[in-house]
Amino acid sequence: DVFTQKRQRKRPKIASTDMESLSSLATGRSETYDEAKDSNVLSNIGLQKDISHPMFEKGQSKRIWGELFKVLDSSDVVVQVLDARDPMGTRSAKVEARLKEQKFSHKHLIFVLNKCDLVPTWATARWVKYLSATAYPTLAFHSSVTNAFGKGALIQLLRQFQLLHGDKKQISVGFIGMPNVGKSSVINTLRKKRVCKVAPIPGETKVWQYITLTKKIYLIDCPGVVNPAGDSESDLVLKGVVRIPNLKDATAYVDAVLERVKPQYISRTYNIERWSNSEDFLTQFAEKAGRLFKGGEADLNTAAKMLLQDWQRGKLPYFVAPSMLPGSTEHDPSLPIPVPEQNFKKIRMTSDFDISDKRVGEIGDDGEIIGENDGGEESGEEDGVLGEDESQEDDE
Length: 396
What we know:
By secondary structure, the chain is an alpha/beta fold. Helices cover 30% and strands 8% of the residues.
């Protein structure tokens, strides 16, 4: 019935029809077997690299890189947004190398040091000076619709680029960077309203999009791209690449946070005086936060996720101290137009650092310690740059 006209199957191929022929077939195959050619045999098990979870490969897919290349191709000016807490860790060497190629040599690259309110003022000033001297022109920035810093300087710089490309009707400015560095927040600050969807989690921007700043300046928002630079899983978590709720074992990354943040800041934030190790800290933290299982056992994984979320959202004071060692560069970091100067004393810090961290900075041109008067003045735009209201006016 199986092989009728209406029902047809492939007739099975039987190599042997009796035990004698089956035995001889097995003997012949065993004599010609080569273990080296057998793909089912595992070799060098101890030397194999551990397979990471797919969540640690976010921001590295072909689709994301395709979105980035479309932004690079469409932009006249490329703005790489960096996290002021770790500028060197959020740079993309692959993108910078690509922009040095001959076909991209006409494009201008600048750095925007975002989240400068989370680091001491002297650190912001020194990072701006260091990156401008050794890499690309750099501006400090604090994203806020109502209380921004660096907005006027960035708009003035973009208008100078527009005048430089006077042969074009309009210029396009692409914003690139790693996930969760604040690219969309910078665009919202320039427009003084929410035109891009933002969230304190990585990967919120899925595709590139055009936003009109003026008649002659268009902004391009780009999804966050992770540069495959050999970072460990802990580095990717602390850089904000991974969404914390998706972590199966968040306790594995707590040691890295406790090593980077000073103990006095952790004690002040969570009211925990001392701890012997990460497990002891998470136990005390879970008890204070009320994260307990039935029977009073501490929920360490939930407490670890709370700690990592506070880290990503800037609630734990932390920054990488800038180095003023002489650096070398293979290109001229200067621009054909002047970069607006910024008054860093107008940055209003939101992180509460100790006085020892606030006053480590060098002496400024006015003879005062940079960072000594943090928060003493009202935050606002730099003197001599365009105000917020002017940024919305259309060019004639």
